[in-house]
Amino acid sequence: MSEYLLRAVDIVKTFTGVKALQGVSLDIKPGEIHCLAGENGCGKSTLIKVISGVYQPDSGYIEFDGHKYTSITPRESIAMGIQVIYQDFSIFPNLSVMENLAFNTELAAGHKLVNKKRMRQIAEEALAKINFEVELDRLVGTLSVAEKQMVAICRALMFNAKLIIMDEPTTALTKKEVAALFEIILKLKAQGIAILFVSHKLNEVFEISERFTIFRSGQLIATGNTSDLDDRKFTYYMTGREFENVKFKPAFEAEKPVLEVKNLTVPGAFEDVSFELKPGQILGITGLLDSGRTELSLALFGLRKVTGGDILVKGKKVSIQSPRDAITAGIGLVPEDRLSEGLFLPQPISENIVISEIDQLSNALGVVDRKARREEVEKWVSELAIATPNPENACSTLSGGNQQRIVLAKWLACKPDVLILNGPTVGVDIGSKHDIHAILQRLANQGMAVIIISDDLPEVLENCSDLLVMRAGKIVARLDPATADEALVLHHMM
Amino acid sequence: MNTLQSIYRKDRHIARLVIMMILWLVFMAITRFSKFYSIANFQTIAGKFPEFGLMSLGAMLCMITGGIDLSSVGIANMTSILMALYMRYRAANGAAISGVVIAEVFLIAAAIGFAAGALNGILISKIHIPPILATLGVNQLLTGIALVVTNGKAVSDIPTAFSSAINQKLWKVVPGKRGTMTGLIPVQLLFFIAAAVFVWFLLSRTSYGKKLYLMGTSENVARFSGLKVSRMLIVTYALSGMLAALGGMIMLANYNSARSDYGSVYTLQCILIVVLGGVSPTGGKGKISGVVLSIILLSLLEAGINRFPQISSYYITLIWGAVLLLVMVLNYFVDHPIARKKS
After folding, report:
1. Which CATH class is domain B2-28+36-335?
2. Is the model more confident about A28 or about A159?
3. Looking at this predicted complex, what is its ipTM?
4. A368 close to B (CB below 8 A)
5. How many angstroms separate the CA of residue B216 from the nearest CA in chain A?
6. pLDDT digits over B213-246, tens only?
7. Are A368 and B206 in contact (CB < 8 Å)?
8. Do A303 and B221 make contact, defined as CB atoms within 8 angstroms?
9. Measuring CA to CA, how many Å separate A140 from each of A96, A106, A300?
10. Mutate: best of A344, A356, A412, partner B, most B CBs <10 A
């Protein structure tokens, strides 16, 4: 047997003239945890699809267990012991855990009639492999994201997998769940199963992987042992750019707070939350997924019914019943989920930028001043460096980082006094992440009050002048990011 | 040729509608030239299609929000019955129906339509009834009211001034009998043109139009963007109701009577027209030019088929269904080109 379980050598794959993979190679040893990293569009997903047989490479070959293949079909790939766990897990939400797990085996065995007892046995065996406990009769649609992922992993293990490929498995997981996933991955490794872990999150790569491979624009940039890798090198390999991490320091100290929140309560989400925010400040709010951080942002934006407490803007009490009220009061919100809350994806970039201020760009009869609109669009496209040849193109043509800039532009165009950002850099590539942080720091220094809600601890520690930690609907700690470290924040979060 | 190609590329959907229309006009020119290509024939077409054309414009607005309006015909019939009764009342003592009264009738009709449409909008936005059910319910309700008021009979004996005012033809340039000149442009067509220009202006030049498209793309994002979603929906369905009521007034003039079951085929026909015109049933997409083209295309098809006495008019429904499915299938293949995979 060769040293490597899988070798993909000089793989070239072209899509209608675009070279998605320009002769990349990837080697995975048996039983190792290998991290494949790279920004969106670097060819990670394409290579996975070549390995799993979904795409046929234009040239190059794949070696698995010492056998050489110039192309494989999905069926062969599964038979060889390669399993891919995609981001959407490919499980049936309307079926029970048991049915999901036993489905493939039942089909393969050609059983025409359903035998619950046999299916239960198959499912129980599958769950036992990673000691995962879940009620077999629960519908998969009612499980949490992490539990769904476990079901998908259990199902993958049923096929005597030798290599499990996980495509960005931590995207929708909370910190606790990520830790649980990593434990499972180590367990799998102990069973001799190799893991190809696809991610663009630096800390995860360091934490879990033994070796790494980094792609950029369809080319292999670096591969080696993770122990030889550091923060700077990683970022450089990913982006080809060097970044200075600038720790935020408020440029000035304002006297009066622009936003005061007093004993705010939304039943079932959070209670008795109080804080104040001055112009030029960046306030970080962190906490686990169920800590009430998202609900707090929605309440400040008029999307949750507040039962107690007051919100004061510039010293005056305001009643915020709808997003329109919030905008009038000078509050903007960059929401958590860009795709379902932030952007009209199929619509032009220009429309997305001006939608919230369209009434200001129109006359009394509601007729849009087209010149003013065009100028406004051009201004924001250049100010935030949104990379598009034509602002009339659909938002969906842009990368995550540029899409987030559009959402940012939409709110900046409304000239808010307070800008709340919930997960401002989720799903955004490293380069854009740095740019967005720089923009936020600049805005604060120009006098805007900013709230960053995020569970990306380096992000809040680096960019905030104040940090609140929420747990189970309450503010449990107020920390100074200049002195706090991740361990301390985590201690308060858990 | 290159400019033609670029026009085609710019909007394939509208280009296809134009091509279909040209093919049909050529076909009619070859087969039935003298019977089809007459001023009188086109005047008949232009006097008829505003009935459902006006309704379709409203249905289009609703479909851009991602909803649907099935109450157009109910609103049209109830309004025209009420207005017929109103005009009989005004003319009860032998009083003449003047232009002022006709204008008054149109204003009241528009207001009734607006209110009925607003009811749709309130049911949909405040009570969260799915548009298909809310508008179907309102349609049944209004048709029911119309039935009860009229006992299912037609309301006729309307002062003829109304019908003749709407049925006249303006711009007297066409040579008529005995050396006189008759008009060219049917008044009904002017109503439709005015409404189409109004809707075009709303959609492409006003903040309402911009908001409408975005709201149709995603109501949730619209809410997060600070749009007043409920108010937008109510206004949109109210506008649709108003346009439907105007369509009803054209029907009243064309038939010189009103009845609770006139034009019942229009309900679905309007939806077909709007979809055929390139408005996405999931919302957020669609142009008025496409809808106007599809209204005209269907009118020309119907009028053309009527020139073949051997073909029963029952075939019209069949042909419309076939045309609609053909367009949907073509759209599918434009949106999902075969053998082109993306990573």
Report:
1. mainly alpha
2. A28
3. 0.83
4. yes
5. 9
6. 999 999 999 999 999 999 999 999 999 999 999 9
7. yes
8. no
9. 5, 18, 33
10. A344
Residue-level length of chain B: 343
Q: Does A57 touch chain B (CB under 8 A)?
A: no
Does position B247 have pLDDT exceeding 90, yes or no? yes
pLDDT band at residue B339, thresholds of 50, 70 and 90?
very low
The reply to whether residue B211 touches residue A343, judged by beta carbons under 8 angstroms, is no
For residue B252, what are the CA distances in angstroms to A432, A451, B276? 62, 61, 27
DSSP letter assigned to residue A27: E
Say if residues B58 and B241 touch (Cβ distance below 8 Å). yes
SS3 of residue A151 by DSSP: helix
Residue from B233, B214, B213, B236 nearest B225 by CA: B214
pLDDT classification of B341: cutoffs 50, 70, 90: very low
pLDDT band, residue A412 (cuts 50/70/90):
very high
Determine the distance in angstroms separating the CA of B244 from the nearest CA of chain A, rounded to an integer. 24
Quick one: pLDDT at residue B200? 96
String of b and e for A222-257 (b: at least 16 CB within 10 Å)? bbeebeebeeeebbbbbbeeebeeeebebeeeeeeb
Residue among A13, A341, A351 whose CB faces B214 most closely:
A351
* Maximum separation of any 2 CA atoms in chain A, in Å: 78
CB of A40 less than 8 A from some CB of B: no
Nearest CA in chain A to B216: A344
What domains are defined for chain A? 6-239 (3.40.50.300), 259-493 (3.40.50.300)
Question: Where do we find the tokens 């005209």?
Answer: B296
10 Å CB burial of residue A371 (0-12, 13-18, 19+) is exposed
Residue A356 with chain B: CB contacts under 8 Å: 225-227
A positions 180-239 inside 8 Å of B (CB): none
Residues from chain B contacting residue A15 (CB–CB below 8 Å) = 341-343
φ, ψ dihedrals at B192, nearest 5°: -65, -45
Q: What distance in Å separates residue B61's CA from the closest CA in chain A?
A: 17
Question: What part of B 245-304 touches A (C-beta under 8 Å)?
Answer: 284-285
The predicted structure's pLDDT at residue B335: 67
Whole-number percent of chain A with pLDDT over 90: 35
What is the number of other CB atoms lying within 10 angstroms of the CB of residue B35? 13
CA dist., res. A348 & res. B154, Å (int): 50
Measure in Å the smallest separation between the Cα of B75 and chain A Cα atoms. 27
Chain B CB contacts of A355 under 8 Å are 210-211, 214, 222, 225, 227
A362 contacts in B (CB within 8 Å)?
206-207
CA A29 from chain centre, in angstroms, equals 28
Provide the token pair at A464. Answer: 């905030």
> Is residue B319 within 8 Å of residue B301, measured between CB atoms?
yes
Q: How far lies A41's CA from each of A32, A218, A269, A282, B284, in Å?
A: 25, 8, 37, 32, 28
CA distances from A261 to A256, A258, A287, A317, B271 (A): 14, 10, 18, 10, 50
Which residues of chain B does A346 touch, with a Cβ-Cβ cutoff of 8 Å?
A: 217, 284-285
Read off φ and ψ for residue B235, nearest 5 degrees: -60, -40
Q: What is the pLDDT of residue A218?
A: 85
Looking at beta carbons, which residues of chain A come within 8 Å of B221?
340-344
Q: What is the rounded average pLDDT for all residues in chain A?
A: 87
How far is A43 from B86, CA to CA, in rounded Å?
71
Q: Please say if the pLDDT value at position B342 is more than 70.
A: no
Q: How many CB pairs under 8 A join A and B?
A: 85
